Amino acid sequence: MPYFLIFLFLLLPGTALAEWPSLSEEDEFFSLERASLEEALNIKTSVASRSAMSLRETPGLVTVITREEIQAMGARELKDVLRLVPEFDFGMDVQGNLGLGVRGNWANEGKVLLMWDGQTYNETLYSTIQFDRFPIDQVEEIEIIKGPGSALYGGFAELAVINIKTGSARALNGSRAYAAYGQGERAGARHYAGYAFGGVFSGTELSAKAHWGEAQRSDRRYTDFDGASSNMNGASDLRPRSLNLSAANKKSSFRLILDDYTLRARDAIDGTVLSTGSAKVQFPVVFAEARHTVYLPGLVRLEPRLSYSKAMPWLEKDEYFSYDKRTERVTAALTAFYRRSAGAEFVAGGEYFHDGVEVDAITAPASQYTGGKTRAGYDNYAFFGQGSFNGALANFIAGARYDKHSQYGASLVPRIAVTKLVDSFNFKAIYSQAFRAPAIENIRLNPDIKPETATSGELEAGYKVSETFYISANAFQTTIKNPIIFVLENGAEVYRNYDRTGTRGGGLSVKFKDGAYRADLAYQSYSARSNRVDGYKVPGRGSCLLGLPRHKLVLNSSMPLGAGLSLNPSAIYLSRRYGYAGSNSIRPFGERVIADVNLQLKDRPLARLTLNLGVKDLFNANYNYLQPYDGGHAPLPASSREIFFKAAYEF
Amino acid sequence: MNSRLRALAFLPLLLACATAASAGNTLAVLTADSGAYLEAFSAFQAAYGSEVPYFNISQETPVLPPGTETVVAFGGKAANYSYPQGVSVVYCMAPGIFVKKPPPVGKAVKISLIPEFEVIFTKLKQIQPELKRLRVFWMTPSFAAFYEPVRTIGERLGIEVTPVKVSSQEEMPTLLRDALGSADAFWLPPDPLLVTPENLMIMREFSWANAIPFYGSTKGMTKEGAAASVGVSFKDMGTAAAGAALQLNEGKVMPGLFFPADVELTLNASAAKKCRLELTPEILRQANYLFP
């Protein structure tokens, strides 16, 4: 396979590799000046339309979180940042792995697409994401579509898209080293360190980022439904390690990511406490990618891309379970951008990927293919297109994506959006369909599984009260047909399509920013709608879905205290949730307020040194992650209050 | 000694100035102490006539010594810094900046990165005598202030100047196509949001393919394929900044925008040939650089 890839790389235009002109003083000057201006002017986002539009006009309900905000809040990990998105909340999946809920819908396994520097981090066996593996201190920006994105991004983007970019070589412009330590109530909670380097050499941008970390899920006690309990302190390790290398010139870019994430958990897949110790589950993955930009004589911009990933998700080789499956995905894609006029723009493209899996003989029989088969492969072809038309009346965006999979057939999902900016007001109306593609293991366990499809309507209205004050309101309705649901039946994994589920709801947001003062207050609520999945229901509470709070209020703020010193408090209010308290027994879990506070000191006592000292979960909320489906897992305790210290130095 | 060697020769002195931060009434703040910023600062230092301490704002926060009366800011990041009230500021090499809390009128002066428009358009007419319709592309909001001046001056010289606002870089190919048949040439000011390697390549390819001259405003643009550029060198910007600082220190009221007198004319012979321009001996004599 690698030889095939080398052959394909050689087919790329030779000039792309031959012409690497030197970076002149003038190039550097304009680049630095551009960065200053872009910072002073508007933030541009590209995720919802795949071309640059301002946040208020982009055809999606989009949140952009910058590096400055991430550092000011003293974020320890990606979950700290995502929890401040009012539409998101975390729930318990299996074996110590957490999943995401979006607008009240359980979105684990292939319903949220997460991209890290353009690489899809949903593993291809179950389509899950391991949210604890990402080095938050390397992040430059996070763009989130809080709604379906399949029309452009395909079968993982059914309910949301999280697009994370790390610092580019130009942004780094040198080295950055960081280290952090967190102390919980009962034990050390985490320690990690990292180093990032970036620079421009003879016109080539080079960057290298390394991260090493150790943390634990919790220092509290976990008790399963049978009454067995274990101390998670020292038995719920989370160990991310990664190396991210990139090289880019004016037209081409290359990236290589080596990422090895391991967790240890004493709760088995059915939630029972493992009697003799913790299971070790690994998620090693390698990504390699080459991209190129071609300008055609007709001034159309083409972006071909070739990607390869190899992974061993859920790798486990211990006395509790044996699971060794190696996956590969090869992706070839071509996207074209064409601006017909100032008022019309088009994006179109095609994508092919091949998913392969090889099952090692040590894998438990229940996880093997029947008939002695040890390999499987699937092909997927996709074509997508979107047109944007900026008229005097409004901006219109229409697009669709067609996928054809060798196993489960075809999916066609359209998207239509209307956005309008009138002086200080902005309006958005979006209708879209999306789908969740069955993953390799879904297909193995149920060859007749079908993709689930979501239909969503979203509205947003915003008003810029002043240069410092902005308010907005949103409403949504999401219906999911043929939802793919995971259940355990007699200890065995089962995936089935159910009838339908969904939610409707809305929210309000107030943003204030004046110089160094910033405050964001957001509220989001959902109500179950059309839910016919018994495993998600809360008896007697038709508006609620299992595990996820109906109401969420988020505050994130920052205020200067003096030269280089700022205070950054944040708080999350979660309304009552419902979860299993035993077999067939659902009970309420009370409201929670989780408050954090972080002090940040910049450029003191040394220039380019940033220090953070914070307290996470200031009031020790005793929060638990609930399982939002009937998987037999008792609530998993989150970590206790944590004092967190971080230092970062640029040189 | 060329400007780069001169800059290097000054380096130990500059480093001493930066660390000592000796008392004096002028302070320089650089966006970066390398490349074009250092070249301009070196020229500033030579023209100013005495040591001026400086800070590199990318690495440290500027601390104004007591008695500082004038700050010379090189680059947009340095220009955007909030200097204390009462301090005069010279903005140099900061295209497109808009300062939220500027000093009072007369206490701030921006050194233009280009000569006066009349000088530019006169030179372009010398290069292309039949030039009658000129498109000017811009994106940075502060360039809107030049909308009317360029049209007025162009009209005086017999050139219909059409400023075109670019909303996003992806719009450039379409805007260039729209100019076919309605423009004799197009000009790119030193707008950082538009001066990107990609845009310069697009403009060059369009210009050469359609024989419509692309005029720039810096030597680098000429090197990248503009037929000609009429601009100001970084060295001359620094020299002009020194003159402005000295005048402000003497208490003189300066205009808000100061155009350096020295003009840098650069030509690209290949581009001129592609665009069917004949470079006369007179224009070749005036040129500071001729790229093959």
Care to give the gist of this entry?
The complex is a heterodimer of chains A (651) and B (292). By secondary structure, chain A is mainly beta.
Layout of helices and strands, plus pairs?
The complex is a heterodimer of chains A (651) and B (292).
Chain A (H helix, E strand, L loop, with lengths): L1 H10 L2 H5 L6 H16 L3 E2 L7 E2 L7 E5 H6 L5 H5 L5 E5 L5 E5 L2 E2 L5 E5 L2 E2 L18 E7 L4 H4 L6 E7 L2 H4 L1 E10 L4 E14 L2 E13 L4 E3 L5 E3 L5 E12 L3 E14 L13 E4 L2 E8 L1 E2 L5 E11 L4 E2 L4 E2 L1 E17 L2 E16 L15 E16 L4 E11 L3 E14 L2 E12 L3 H6 L6 E15 L2 E13 L2 E6 L2 E6 L2 E15 L2 E12 L22 E12 L2 E10 L2 E6 L2 E5 L2 E11 L6 E8 L7 E2 L10 E2 L4 E9 L1
Parallel strand pairs in A: 7-10
Antiparallel strand pairs in A: 1-2, 3-9, 4-5, 5-6, 7-8, 9-10, 11-12, 11-44, 12-13, 13-16, 14-15, 16-17, 17-18, 17-19, 19-21, 20-21, 21-24, 22-23, 24-25, 25-26, 26-27, 27-28, 28-29, 29-30, 30-31, 31-34, 32-33, 34-35, 35-36, 36-37, 37-40, 38-39, 40-41, 41-44, 42-43
Chain B lengths: L2 H18 L5 E5 L4 H14 L5 E3 L13 E5 L1 H4 L8 E5 L15 E4 L5 H11 L5 E6 L8 H10 L3 E6 L6 H8 L5 E3 L9 H14 L3 E3 L2 H5 L4 E4 L2 H16 L7 E2 L5 E5 H6 L6 H6 L2 E3 L1
Parallel strand pairs in B: 1-2, 1-3, 3-4, 4-5, 5-11, 6-7, 6-8, 8-9, 9-10, 12-13
Antiparallel strand pairs in B: 10-12
Helix pairs in contact in B: 1-2, 2-9, 6-7
Structure explained in plain terms:
The complex is a heterodimer of chains A (651) and B (292). Chain A has 651 residues and is mainly beta. Chain A has one domain (37-650): Maltoporin, Chain A (Beta Barrel), CATH 2.40.170.20. Chain A contains 8 helices and 44 strands. The model of chain A is unreliable at 1-23 and 42-53 (pLDDT under 50). Chain B is of the alpha/beta class and 292 residues long. Chain B folds into 2 domains: 3-112 and 234-258, Response regulator (Rossmann fold, 3-Layer(aba) Sandwich); 117-231 and 264-291, Rossmann fold, CATH 3.40.50. Chain B is 38% helix and 18% strand. Chain B has helices at 3-20, 35-48, 76-79, 117-127, 147-156, 172-179, 197-210, 219-223, 234-249, 269-274, 281-286; strands at 26-30, 54-56, 70-74, 88-92, 108-111, 133-138, 160-165, 185-187, 214-216, 228-231, 257-258, 264-268, 289-291. In chain B, the strands form 2 sheets. In chain B, strands 7-6-8-9-10-12-13 form a 7-stranded mixed beta sheet, sandwiched between helices. In chain B, strands 2-1-3-4-5-11 form a 6-stranded parallel beta sheet. In chain B, β1 (26-30), α2 and β2 form a beta-alpha-beta unit. Mean pLDDT of chain B is 84; it is low at 1-23. Classes of the chains: A mainly beta (651), B alpha/beta (292). Chain A binds chain B through residues 24-30, 32-34, 36-38, 40-41, 44, 51-53, 173, 250, 293, 295, 297, 299-301, 337, 339-342, 345, 564, 603, 607-608, and chain B through 31-32, 34-37, 39, 58-61, 75-77, 80, 93-98, 140-141, 167-171, 173-178, 190, 192-193, 195-198, 201-202, 205-206, 209, 218-220, 223, 234.
